[in-house]
Specification:
about 15% strand; four-stranded parallel β-sheet; single chain; 3 domains; Rossmann fold; 17 helices; alpha/beta; globular; five-stranded parallel β-sheet
Length: about 350
């Protein structure tokens, strides 16, 4: 059918055509879907998970076509890790990441030239642009996730080096706090303080995830403790340090999912992360009390719709690859180095 006619279809008709195309493409297609996606997309997933986990699994699959349902930086790293014969798509290319946008390669290099490169190892959070991952790979650094940031900070310190962490200040501060590191400096490329860089054990980029930074507060934690005193509060480490400190625990989406699923029937949880994910946890764990600390929706993760997905699958079926994700080969190579260093230490 003409893609222009897709908007005339009902949701159920769109879903039916998606299912048909998935069946026709068979093992040639792999569709990884991030936890924060809409339910209308998650139900078609071949695998759900965190960003780097999905990229690694996509690279290992034998499928020719990877339709990555997440945001742009995720499709970039999937492209970088996958073999050249695979073709990677993002159903809505406007699905970006404000956290990743905080750190451009030009600004990062502006700070890097002010640092003693023999003393620092750069670490970038997976939620960053491919050029930042490549920068880390090229300069002896690596990629981290919210699950292994603490371990990789220790790896740097064990070499008597200092950490240059990009781009999430909350994850950087929370990791430093976990390790008892008090001497850190939040660097802004528009106001670089050389004296502070020289003193710091960890130099942390001044960026944040709006979904976690703005919405969740200590007051909400305290209010839930009054309403549900038996509930455990678990939040993502992209939340502000005072929110993490006020909660019972923090962790990646994978850890949050595991803690709730493996908890006893009747247990109570209040969760501080993206609402689509929390609501799905609630619906999948009906024997437990699961509630959002507050409703916070990632607008970019919600950009991919069932109609976007259908259009992309039609392109794949018709061998129209004009919308595929393409990355410079040198950038891909250096980004892979940064990921592989992380994997060697995991």
């Amino acid at each position: 059918m003409d893609k222009k006619d897709i908007n005339l279809l009902t949701d159920s008709e769109v879903d039916s055509r998606i299912s048909k195309l998935k069946s026709e493409l068979g093992s040639d297609l792999f569709m990884p879907v991030h936890h924060y996606q809409r339910d209308e997309i998650v139900k078609f997933a071949d695998y759900t998970g965190d960003s780097l986990e999905l990229s690694r699994i996509s690279a290992k699959t034998n499928a020719k076509y990877i339709v990555f349902c997440g945001v742009y930086f995720m499709a970039e790293i999937a492209r970088a890790l996958a073999s050249e014969n695979k073709i990677v798509f993002l159903p809505n290319r406007s699905a970006g990441c404000p956290l990743a946008d905080f750190a451009s390669i030009e600004d990062v290099e502006k700070v890097w030239v002010r640092m003693n490169k023999d003393e620092f190892i750069p670490i970038t959070y997976a939620n960053s642009h491919i050029e930042i991952k490549a920068f880390c790979g090229e300069n002896g650094g690596l990629v981290c996730t919210s699950s292994n940031a603490s371990k990789l900070f220790k790896w740097v310190f064990n070499q008597n080096k200092r950490v240059f962490f990009i781009p999430d200040k909350n994850l950087g501060i929370n990791t430093a706090n976990e390790l008892g590191v008090k001497n850190y400096y939040i660097v802004n490329p528009s106001n670089i303080q050389d004296k502070e860089i020289k003193k710091a054990d960890v130099v942390i980029w001044d960026g944040y995830c709006p979904v976690h930074h703005y919405v969740f507060t200590v007051e909400q934690v305290n209010e839930w403790r009054r309403k549900e005193p038996d509930a455990k509060v678990i939040v993502h480490p992209e939340c502000r340090p005072e929110v993490v400190n006020a909660s019972d625990m923090s962790g990646s989406t994978a850890k949050i999912k595991r803690e709730i699923e493996e908890s006893n029937s009747g247990s109570k949880w209040v969760v501080g992360t993206e609402y689509n994910f929390v609501n799905r946890l609630k619906n999948n764990n009906t024997d437990k009390f699961v509630a959002p600390l507050e409703i916070s929706i990632c607008v970019n993760m919600s950009k991919i719709t069932r109609r976007d997905l259908l259009k992309t699958l039609i392109n794949v079926k018709n061998r129209d690859f004009t919308e595929q994700i393409i990355i410079d080969s040198d950038i891909s190579k250096n980004a892979r180095v940064a990921v592989e260093r992380m994997l060697e230490l995991s």
